[in-house]
Amino acid sequence: MTEPPGRRERKKAATRQKIADTALRLFLDRGYDAVGIRDVAAEADVAVTTLFSHFASKEALVFEQDDNFEQRLTQAVTNRAPHEPLIPALRREIQEMVRHCTADGTVPVYRMIDESRALREYEESMRLRHAESLATAIAADPGLSQTTTACRTIARFVIDAYSLAREADDPQAAVDEIFQMIEAAWQVT
């Protein structure tokens, strides 16, 4: 059993969340390009150095759940029940993530991302990193015997499934359709 975070960790998490929430509000109100790091720090009532101790870049403020997303994907592989097939475990996690990212209020955020070259490029590099982490987790699973190339390919398909489903008119139906193809590809390897 894990111990609950201590006071210091809770304070750090609260500060991080306050910065992220402030940044997103400012970006949506004024436009991403019109808001600087100093604006976010001042509005969140933190020093710029404090902001940078929580976020590596301005783009990272928009994708504040990045680490959580990557961790959830790798845990879908590593924490699945013994003998549970890989693809259904990944499908469940992607379905939940898509449900979260298509909830009310997310459209303006994704519109902002689509309108900013810097954010699109950051998201693409983030997706590639997530795919590599996922491929590493799949390849490390002793119950799976696919090649490195197969693991990397499936990982990229899974990451792309998230992006494609998020943009679809019916995101959950898109997840179902995409994962039928992923399952078929996995069976071939």
In short:
The chain is mostly helical and 189 residues long. Helix content is 76%, strand content 0%.
Beginning-to-end CA distance, first to last residue = 37 Å
Largest sheet: none
Helix proportion: over 70%
Give the overall shape. globular
Could you give the count of β-strands?
A: 0
Residue runs with pLDDT of under 50 for 5 or more positions: none
Short key terms for the protein model shown above:
189 residues, mainly alpha
Describe this structure in words.
- By secondary structure, this protein is mainly alpha-helical.
- Helices cover 76% and strands 0% of the residues.
- The protein is built from ten helices and no strands.
- The chain has helices at 7-30, 37-44, 48-54, 58-62, 66-78, 86-101, 107-115, 117-140, 148-167, 171-188.
- Helix 7 (107-115) crosses helix 8 and helix 8 crosses helix 9.
- The longest helix is centred in the first third of the chain and has 24 residues, at 7-30.
- The protein is globular and about 55 Å long.
- The protein starts with 6 loop residues before the first helix and ends with a helix.
